[in-house]
Write a structure and sequence with these properties.
Layout lengths: L2 E2 L2 E2 H5 L1 H19 L4 H33 L9 H40 L23 H40 L3
Antiparallel strand pairs: 1-2
Keywords: Membrane, Transmembrane, Transmembrane helix
């Protein structure tokens, strides 16, 4: 079992995902739903989309180390509560690993949309507001404009679904872990 100053790493490592994952989920929702803020918080979402899965991976890895070192049953398995807790952690990791590229692709398409709108080079020819967002009816004849918007809507729906699942898994993994440590009886 891996320790730090004679303490198992897992109780220390679980605090990073408890901060980074909710921050990612909230920032990603703001990024997806409030277009004028996208330029300002895009870099935050990008950094959190790397930090949050890394933090969850560290918590999952250290949790497995802790369970293998202290909580194996006589037949060499984990108790059911630990299996459930580890399963929630694994699911959260996979959800975040799926969310990250969806957000990255959405961001690439958003930047392409802004660039096309700003250059007016056959793309969006509608006027822009001070934030660089389109302002007014589009007179675009750019065939990529419509496709880009459709793909962004689909990616946004997928991202919102993953954000909801991620929020639920954060609750489940945290609740199951605290039940093991603190119990309710």
């Amino acid at each position: 079992m891996t320790t730090f100053m004679d303490l198992p790493i897992h109780p220390l490592a679980v605090h990073a995902p408890l901060v980074f994952v909710p921050l990612l989920l909230i920032a990603a929702l703001v990024y997806l739903l409030i277009a004028p803020l996208r330029r300002r918080i895009g870099w935050v979402v990008f950094i959190l989309s790397i930090l949050a899965p890394a933090a969850v991976f560290g918590a999952v890895w250290s949790g497995r180390e802790l369970a293998d070192g202290r909580h194996l049953t006589p037949d060499g398995n984990w108790p059911e509560a630990i299996v459930d807790h580890a399963s929630y952690g694994d699911r959260l990791l996979w959800i975040l690993l799926g969310l990250a590229p969806v957000l990255w692709l959405f961001g690439v398409l958003e930047k392409a949309r802004r660039n096309a709108a700003a250059t007016n080079g056959g793309a969006d020819t509608q006027p822009l507001d001070p934030n660089g967002e389109p302002n007014g009816p589009s007179t675009s004849d750019d065939p990529a404009n419509k496709g880009r918007r459709i793909i962004m809507i689909v990616l946004g729906i997928i991202a919102i679904a993953l954000i909801g699942l991620g929020g639920w898994m954060v609750f489940e993994v945290g609740h199951s872990g605290s039940e093991m440590v603190w119990g309710t009886e």
